[in-house]
Write a structure and sequence with these properties.
By secondary structure, the chain is of the alpha/beta class. The protein has 2 domains: about 230 residues, Aldehyde Dehydrogenase, Chain A, domain 1; about 180 residues, Aldehyde Dehydrogenase, Chain A, domain 2. It contains 16 helices and 18 strands. The strands form 4 sheets. It has a 7-stranded mixed β-sheet with strand order 10-13-14-9-8-15-16. The protein binds nicotinamide-adenine-dinucleotide (NAD). Nicotinamide-adenine-dinucleotide (NAD) binds next to helix 7 and helix 8. The site of nicotinamide-adenine-dinucleotide has 28 residues, from helix 7 and helix 8.
Amino acid sequence: MEKIFQQQQRFFLTDKTKSYAFRERELKRLLDVLIANEALFQEALVKDLNKSSFELYATEIGIVIASIRNTLKKLKSWMKVRKVKTPLYQFGSKSYIQYEPLGTVLIIGPYNYPIQLVIEPLIGALAAGNTVILKPSEFASHTEKALEKVLNKAFDSRVLHVVTGGVETTQKLLSLKFDHIFFTGSTRVGQIVYEAAAKHLIPVTLELGGKSPTIVDETAKISVAAKRIVFGKFINAGQTCIAPDYLYVHAAVKDQLIEMLIETIDEFYNDHETQYGRIINDKHYQRLTKLILKDNVIYGGNSDSKTRYIEPTLLDNITWEDAVMQEEIFGPILPIMTFNNLEEVITTLKQKEKPLALYLFTENKSVVNNVFNSLSFGGGAINDTIMHVANPNLPFGGVGHSGMGVYHGVASFKTFSHAKSYIKKSTKIDPKIAYPPYTEKQEKLVRKVLK
Ligand code: NAD
């Protein structure tokens, strides 16, 4: 591991990764490899999480293929040295921004979207001209092995290398002096990564989790809201960082919403063998089943430990004191809370850690303004769930406890680049105004100019 890291550092210093041609070639290699091995990845994703063939293409393989194509289309323009305005008092100067790669970077991924969440940052890292060590999650073990096999065969290890293993491996990686660490995972492990990075003053991007609220007010189109909430909550059996964690619904529309949620779940997941995911491992299965309070179940609640299946489950009459509200759920359990006064909801949410996402269902513009101006969260949607993640023009990331830094599209390129900023000054004129010894006249002039 250390040897490969050093080889990558040495290779980076040759400047070979900096040209457009090199970056383009590596991105095309990644694209070809993903397309050629789609079947292998599909098989692995089904074994790890029982993803449906639609889900695994839309959220794992297709989405990163589209992202590589988008990056290839725009990379040349992103790489251009950019001229920016210069203040008048710097007469004779021109100002520029040049994006340069950071060096050798580490990408650590979680288990829930085990391809997308390592390949998407990898696209940015390669596009920006870095060399990369990739550490997929050991929990999605079939996908981890598939990524290792395919990528390590296709890429020169001085450019990209996949390292597999658990906590010990990650901790060894974290002791190396990378130029950037891009981590996606839990807030708890994010803190460990941040601490390790601080030792060498390594910049980090932390894509973490949290409890993302969904608010449904009395003006919302309930039939549409129900479909979009069920879609965002139960995709990948709830193991989605931006899934609606819990529901806050206005008392006036609560019964109607619950009725439609149940109807929608029945319609979407009738064939749960092929359409619905499984929990990644026994530890998470045990953790989740403990959160299902029988007295609060109004739909679902059943599970099967052999296949790690947990039915889409709705819990009613939940309060902030319940166990299910103490931590991010990250599974197919949807607690429902009721409100009469939106201001009270806003006041409550202001006291909580800033979530990764927030969803608001309403037809009332002033409610949108109120919620979106009052509350802080990574990103979100009005009258939808999770889809903001699929627009490469929107920087994606958390705030506060849900993370720091953003990626996707040009934001990924910038995350893995340093914006080297400089001025170029003409030598034709060299007025004395800025040089000592300073006279009263000079000071007067500077006061005028800097007003
Ligand atoms: P996790 O934090 O348990 O693991 C993530 C990675 O960290 C894995 O590769 C693992 O090997 C490594 N790791 C685990 N313990 C470690 C330790 N003690 N020291 C060093 N490395 C360690 O996360 P997970 O369970 O795989 O994923 C679920 C979490 O990730 C949820 O909280 C979810 O919200 C979050 N998540 C966030 C995003 C996002 O984009 N913000 C996306 C997906 C998941």
